[in-house]
């Protein structure tokens, strides 16, 4: 049994692209390295040298998938890359991205973060019209749509790439932040609601780069220019980026609020604000809403560090390091015997007994999904000698699965879908439990409340078709 954080929401993908730089493969590799937190199961790069495309994809972390020889073989000054967190379990390498095909318009590659909500219908329609699929990813569906849009052009007519993509993506519903490589041209596109982040910047030693998060630009020494806007297609031409708005631009924005809670790296800047700053504010709001009479505040590292710091600042209770996280677990395998399963949490966290002994402890965590990991962690803290354990969560109870590109369990597996807060506290085994309210969450993030998706908290899915699917689906899993 491979160790993975089963009891957490997971981002599904990180994407990166670069053009106009002769070190395209190496820069893409560095970009993927910085975006590794967005997907750890497979990594891939596609480059273009002016004549042909090169591809390498494999299962594993970026630094396992690529070495110097492989990067040297990925020739060219244009590259796109992808890290993926797969949930499907079947044919995983086949689904690794970027996807690369050759069509009438030349080489076409794409790396996608998000999930199309109408994927099954689109696929059925395309299959009925004769399309053949090699993978189960949404990305392949999008490639087919691009090829079909191209096929509708009169032969020999030069197609404007932005118009072509806008036509292909028209009617596609759901979440997509994508980088394309279209016959050597780097293109970035973001769905009209802008669920997933995407930004671009100028690389100091030449060219342009696109990344899911600004930390992916920082590592290649690129100065952030701006975010790709919802409903925008940005074509990176020799003279610089050119913007094209899709027809559906102007749809209400639905940026995934969970990006701020958990997915984004704290050093990234999104919507003009550093993620660390937002998370500290979540912690401060949580301290105001759900105070606790306690001696110390500790975080569940690393994702809750900033929220715990905010809680400590606001409450005046000192922040201590009560849990140590092992950063080197990688692809650890644990024997599937029940008696050894409890070691899973131990592999990742260990309590600092001297810090916890005899103390009334506030534990700040970012979220509770199934509750099983929280249960084991709180037990560990208590057994280390804590006199009282007060769990504070820097987000509201998660009651609904995600259909927009986060890996979530089914609704029935979400502990808050069937239990009230007091019941969850009892299930986890804490002296008290407090969640940040939805209003408190929305007041702590930048921009207007209406510009966020909060569906996993209140079930208000921005697409009606998803509401129906949510009511009937037993899966509740995203793919790409
Ligand atoms: S349902 Fe939740 S995780 Fe999914 S996009 Fe909306 S806020 Fe993000």
Could you characterize the architecture of this molecule?
- The structure is a single chain.
- About 30% of the residues lie in helices and about 25% in strands.
- With about 475 residues, the protein is an alpha+beta fold.
- The chain has 2 domains: about 10-255, Aminohydrolase, N-terminal nucleophile (Ntn) domain (Glutamine Phosphoribosylpyrophosphate, subunit 1, domain 1, 4-Layer Sandwich), CATH 3.60.20.10; about 275-445, Rossmann fold.
- The longest helix is centred in the middle third of the chain and has 15 residues, at about 275-290.
- Residues about 475-480 have low confidence and may be disordered.
- Iron/sulfur cluster binds near residues 195, 256, 257 and 258.
- Iron/sulfur cluster (SF4) binds near residues 258, 404, 454, 455 and 456.
The top-level CATH class of the largest domain is Alpha Beta
| SS strand fraction | 15-25%
CATH topology of the largest domain: Glutamine Phosphoribosylpyrophosphate, subunit 1, domain 1
Number of separate structural domains: 2
- Content-based structural category: alpha+beta
- What sort of overall outline do the alpha carbons produce when their principal axes are compared? globular
Helical content band: 25-40%
**Named CATH architecture of the largest domain:** 4-Layer Sandwich
- Describe the sheet with the most strands: 7 strands, antiparallel
Count of extended strands: 25
| Overall pLDDT metric | 90
Question: Helical element count?
Answer: 20
Distance between the termini: 23 Å
Under CATH, the homologous superfamily of the largest domain reads Aminohydrolase, N-terminal nucleophile (Ntn) domain
Largest beta sheet: what is the strand line-up?
4-3-5-2-11-10-12
The rounded Rg comes to: 23 Å
Task: Point out poorly predicted stretches.
Answer: 474-480
Q: Give the names of the bound compounds.
A: iron/sulfur cluster
